[in-house]
Design a protein that fits this description.
mainly alpha; 9 helices; 0% strand; globular
Length: 241
Amino acid sequence: MNVDWLFEWTGSKRSETSAVDRLWTALGAATLVIAVIFVGITGYYAAVGEAGAEPPTAVVYGSTGLGFILAGALLWWRLDESERLAAFPLRRPSRTELIWTLAFVPLGVSAFVGGEWMAGLLGFEMVSFYDYDLTNPVTLLAVLFGPVIVGPFVEELVFRGALLSSLEGRGWSPVAAGLGSITVFAGYHVFALGVAGVFAIAAWAIFPTVLRLRFDNLTGAWLLHLCNNVYAYVIAVYFVF
C-alpha cells in the first residue's frame, strides 16, 4: 500500500526542521472538537425535543469525527509550510520504531487500567463509553469514523504534534513539553470520561509521547493510538462488553 500521499500532505518529508510556536492554535483546535460535539448534541436535542435524554452514539461520535476534521483543517490553515515541518514529523517508521509501537500496545492498555484503578482509590469512577451496539450499522460507522479513523490521526497532530512542538518552541525541554502535552491531552478527555478518565488517559499517553520524543516522528504514536482505539472502541465492545 502506497502511503506517500500522507507524508506529502503533512509536509513531513523533511531534511531540516524549523521552530513552531502555535500554542494557542493547538489549544484552539482541541477546543474546536469539544465545541462541535456540543453543537451536535444540542442540535440533536433541538430536533427530537428530548432534552436530558442520552444522545445516540452515532450523534456523539459522528460529531466527534466532524470536530476532528475541522480541527485538522484549522491546523493546516494556520500553520505555514515551515511550521508544519516542525509540528508534524510524519515519516515512514523504522523497524525499531515499529517494534516499540507494538510493544507499547499492551503496555498502554495496562497503564490505562492502572490509571483507572488509581483514580478509584481516590474515589473517582470512570464514565462508561462502552454502552453502544456495534450491530447497528449507523453506530458502527460513527464509531469507525470518529474514534477509530479520524480521531487518532488528528489528536496526534494536535497534541503530540502542534502542542508539543509549540512548547518546545517556547523553550521547554523535550521532557517538560511531553509532560505538558500529556496534561492537556488527559484534561481534554474529562468531558467524556470524567476525572477517572483523566488519570487513565494520562497514564496511557506516556507511551505515544515517548514514541514521539524518542524517534522524532508521529507515525509510531499515531499507529499506537490507532491500535488502542480499535481495541477499546471495537474489539473490547464486541467481545467483552
